[in-house]
């Protein structure tokens, strides 16, 4: 009875949260409000407002001069042979630098891992702001200029030939750069494991391409729930530029049967998700051969937005009722349940805990005919924790498809 009353109390908090009017994006946690929040403030100005805000009396930051002085690097970007976006706009650099700054009362200042910095213009701004930066660059053409910057940074910058998108490949055997195992990378960077409840030890800044963003997000959600890869070292925070469409799916709420998907449920269950900044794609620099919106590799139209999203794993994700050993099973269960969002939840539960579906729903005061697409992420986690304590829980029903998913999300 104690567990049932605890579950009902948790359910009340979850389901009554949206009535309090809390905004979706919050430093504490996301709520169940289905509306899209309006974001204001200095971190979300358009390019024209940034120019208007600048006055002749304001001193230019050190990094603004480096933009004009690095013409060789910009020419390198212009001749780059692959589709890739680069940050060179001074206003955007300033906004990103503010977003990545340490916050709150954190006892330790986390270092920043900048993925694919290219010519290193944002890197210079982060160094000027006093950050310690680990630059992971996948393309060798940019390494000489980054290594030159490293030599002048007095230990504040370390450059590694590594592709963050290819960390911990599923293939066994010898791995050559830019692929790398996370254990090797963290050893090279002298980053040590900390407890899960400690402060964020590392901020990762990266930009997702439209073709690979879902793949990378899926890889990370598996690693997060099982505390593998970079998450072995603590609550690593992702600061990700992604398409606005993907961001909206990530924060989607129950009842939207088109966009409420397993990926969003899993991230909302595990992480605080915060929208830091929106920027039109036209602000980012691309090689001229890929700039045309009509080209298949251009990655969208110029008036579309990219969203800088902070994804921070919660301190209370794991407990004695939910461990990393259970994480992979939970991920697979959510994938199965959300595959058909209009199916009856009781039918899914009876497959996993035969004959106990009705009791499980009643323990959380859920309607017998509720569908899988109408359950809040926190409710799914409560259901799973109750199921784990049942002797009838059929784990093999979930585990049968895990290896198939590994093949789909591998490189």
From TrEMBL:
<dbReference type="InterPro" id="IPR020598">
    <property type="entry name" value="rRNA_Ade_methylase_Trfase_N"/>
</dbReference>
<feature type="domain" description="Ribosomal RNA adenine methylase transferase N-terminal">
    <location>
        <begin position="92"/>
        <end position="289"/>
    </location>
</feature>
<keyword id="KW-0489">Methyltransferase</keyword>
<dbReference type="Pfam" id="PF00398">
    <property type="entry name" value="RrnaAD"/>
</dbReference>
<dbReference type="GO" id="GO:0034246">
    <property type="term" value="F:mitochondrial transcription factor activity"/>
</dbReference>
<feature type="region of interest" description="Disordered">
    <location>
        <begin position="36"/>
        <end position="67"/>
    </location>
</feature>
<feature type="binding site">
    <location>
        <position position="137"/>
    </location>
    <ligand>
        <name>S-adenosyl-L-methionine</name>
    </ligand>
</feature>
<keyword id="KW-0805">Transcription regulation</keyword>
<feature type="binding site">
    <location>
        <position position="87"/>
    </location>
    <ligand>
        <name>S-adenosyl-L-methionine</name>
    </ligand>
</feature>
<feature type="binding site">
    <location>
        <position position="163"/>
    </location>
    <ligand>
        <name>S-adenosyl-L-methionine</name>
    </ligand>
</feature>
<keyword id="KW-0698">rRNA processing</keyword>
<dbReference type="GO" id="GO:0003723">
    <property type="term" value="F:RNA binding"/>
</dbReference>
<dbReference type="GO" id="GO:0005759">
    <property type="term" value="C:mitochondrial matrix"/>
</dbReference>
<protein>
    <recommendedName>
        <fullName>rRNA adenine N(6)-methyltransferase</fullName>
        <ecNumber>2.1.1.-</ecNumber>
    </recommendedName>
</protein>
<dbReference type="InterPro" id="IPR029063">
    <property type="entry name" value="SAM-dependent_MTases_sf"/>
</dbReference>
<keyword id="KW-0694">RNA-binding</keyword>
<dbReference type="InterPro" id="IPR001737">
    <property type="entry name" value="KsgA/Erm"/>
</dbReference>
<dbReference type="GO" id="GO:0000179">
    <property type="term" value="F:rRNA (adenine-N6,N6-)-dimethyltransferase activity"/>
</dbReference>
<keyword id="KW-0496">Mitochondrion</keyword>
<dbReference type="GO" id="GO:0006391">
    <property type="term" value="P:transcription initiation at mitochondrial promoter"/>
</dbReference>
<keyword id="KW-0804">Transcription</keyword>
<keyword id="KW-0809">Transit peptide</keyword>
<keyword id="KW-0949">S-adenosyl-L-methionine</keyword>
<comment type="similarity">
    <text>Belongs to the class I-like SAM-binding methyltransferase superfamily. rRNA adenine N(6)-methyltransferase family.</text>
</comment>
<keyword id="KW-0808">Transferase</keyword>
